Amino acid sequence: MKKLPNSVKWLIILLVLVGMGWMMWKVNDRASRVEMPAPDNTFGIYRTTDSNS
Question: Is 5's pLDDT higher than 70?
Answer without folding.
Answer: yes
